[in-house]
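Figure 3 (text version): structure tokens given as input.
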């Protein structure tokens, strides 16, 4: 996944509310950028730290910039644009990185769950319901999700468990957009309810996988699956 047009380097200043960040470009211009990441982005956004922004392709859009990458204090880039995660997981499936998912299977995005209401990120091959979660919190090589309490994330786990109970397959994929992650697991200290529910639905048959992404300011590329530690 190439960044087209190229990303622009900036310095992070501060976050305002949930969806805005303030930054300074290398030419000294101060800008406000949109972020779709509702998490805390711990370890990815540090005042004075390097970030990377994408310019808007719609000149009528209110904000001309979108936050794409942050950097850890150690200089590791992290993909914080949650809208990239679904495409990266689909790319990984087509590349054959998921051994229990056919690389030739049709991938249908945003399919409504039976009975209406919420939608699943993907329906793969007509029988695998897939939810994707972007994970950027990494400590000592271990990626953890979520980085903030998430009632929505818990609802998604319940939706997947319902599909398993109906006789389908269901798959939760952590999309880890950091190269320094070696394992993945729930962040029990941040959202203990999520961790408990994740273990429960996994015992009921919801499959859990983690895909690591190679992250650079030029491109993002699915790399390999990581062990999930529940």
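Below: residues designed for each position.
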């Amino acid at each position: 996944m190439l960044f087209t047009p190229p990303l622009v380097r900036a310095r992070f200043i501060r976050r305002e509310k949930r969806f805005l960040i303030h930054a300074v470009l290398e030419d000294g211009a101060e800008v406000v950028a949109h972020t779709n990441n509702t998490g805390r982005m711990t370890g990815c956004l540090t005042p004075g730290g390097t970030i990377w922004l994408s310019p808007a392709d719609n000149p009528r859009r209110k904000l001309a910039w979108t936050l794409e990458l942050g950097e850890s204090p150690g200089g590791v880039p992290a993909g914080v644009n949650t809208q990239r995660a679904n495409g990266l997981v689909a790319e990984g499936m087509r590349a054959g990185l998921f051994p229990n998912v056919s690389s030739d299977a049709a991938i249908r995005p945003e399919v409504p769950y039976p009975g209406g209401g919420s939608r699943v990120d993907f329906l793969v091959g007509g029988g695998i319901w897939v939810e994707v979660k972007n994970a950027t919190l990494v400590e000592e090589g271990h990626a953890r999700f979520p980085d903030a309490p998430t009632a929505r994330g818990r609802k998604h786990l319940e939706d997947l468990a319902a599909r398993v109970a109906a006789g389908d397959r269901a798959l939760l994929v952590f999309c880890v957009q950091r190269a320094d992650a070696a394992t993945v697991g729930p962040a029990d200290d941040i959202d203990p309810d999520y961790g408990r529910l994740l273990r429960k639905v996994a015992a009921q048959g919801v499959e859990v996988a983690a895909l690591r992404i190679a992250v650079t300011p030029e491109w993002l590329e699915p790399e390999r699956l990581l062990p999930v530690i529940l």
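The CA atoms of residues 112 and 119 lie 4 Å apart.
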